[in-house]
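[job 4471] stage=fold_predict status=RUNNING
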Amino acid sequence: MEILGPILLVIGLIGGLGGGYWLRKLLAGREKDSAEAKAESIVNEAKKNEQDVVLKAKEKAIHIVEEAKKEEQARHQELQGLQKRLEKRESLFDQKLLDLENKQQKLYEKAQQIEKIKKEISNVKVEQIAKLEKVASLSKDDAKKILLDNVEKQSAEELLERMRKLEQITSEELEKKSKQMLTTVIQRCASSHSAETTTTVIQLPSDEMKGRIIGREGRNIKRIEELTGVEIIVDDTPEAIVVSGFSPIRRHLAKRALEKLIADGRIHPTKIEDAIELSKKELALDIKKAGEEAMYETGVTGLDPKLVQILGRLKYRTSYGQNVLRHSVEVSELGGLLAEELDGNVALVKKAGLLHDIGKAVDHEVQGTHPEIGRDIAKKFHLPDEMIPPIYEHHEDHPSTLEAVIVKVADAISGARPGARKDTYEQYLQRLEELENVALEFHGVDKAYAIQAGREIRIFVRADEVDDLGASKLAKEIARKIEEELRYPGEIKINVVRETRIIEYAR
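[job 4471] inference complete, writing structure tokens
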């Protein structure tokens, strides 16, 4: 029994192992059959899908081919239509070309017929003239001359009488109308009178200020006169000094500088130089403002800013005592009124009238007459071509345009009206300018100012070009030339000033 137990256990184990192996083999066979079935199913499904894709691709390819055939057929039909239209147009063009050639041939034949007829008419005319000349025993020119002479003799007196009558009536009417027009224009334009002013009075806070202005040994007043070119008169007039000079711009510069120095209270050469430099800048702004105000007053626009600056300089320029800027404004207004009456270009006349004396602003610096300088300025600033004749021809006897005639007449009205100008003042200014110009012709002269109403000329020379001995000789030479070339009452003092100024800065 003890042996039987282990044997049974071994047999059981062997049987269990065999049964497990058989069972596992059975399960593996079933799994294999199941995997093969799945693989076969997948393959079959893939074949079926492949057949569907191939069918769809074939259907799509057939559809594309059909569409391509349709497009090709449509294009073929379109090309056939175009070809038919072209053939039709070509046939029409050929027909028109033939018709044109036929018409051209007919015109050529008609032209030949016309030429033939013209020759026949010309021949007939020559024959008729020859027969008439033979009958009249006169040539064509002789007969024409006799006829014209007879007509001229018969109507000469009648024509002359009629011409005299028409001229008289026309001149009377034109004179009456022109007087009426000028009277109306002059009445509509109110203007100021000229004043022969060559001095400017400056009020002082006290008489003690006179001593400061004069300075130690007169150095302050000399420096002011040297830099401004005017004469400062300090007399017994209470709380006032007088600035004398023929140039308005110099007097105005000196007045501005003195007012600044008086307000500051500190007066010495350095302060004087600073005040004069500042006054020059302010004067430049004042000149520009004067030009802009003149434009605004006359209604003129569109001028270059530099040209406005030049125009403003006329505020400090006089002609026979008449302020040139006021005269230019007056000419602009008078010209505009005349242009309205005569149907001229009002805007052009007003602008040309305002600028007609622009050359006088720089005639001391540029060679030539003021109309020539004005013309050159107009061209430089690209003013319209039609504006040049009124500026250049306002002193000519026969201006070339209506606007030039109007500006000339307005200029004459402005200068000829009572109280507009003073001849003595202009002669005085001319004498002083000639005196300065004589001194400026000499080598080494830097500045020259005529002062004391022309009784003295103060000349500043360049120290590096003229020594002390040369300054003495220069004074004698200038005096001799003034005696030879100029006419003047009394005597003229020649004052030559030579000084050396060296400036350095410590930094």
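[job 4471] summary: DSSP finds 14 helices and eight strands in the chain.
[job 4471] exit 0
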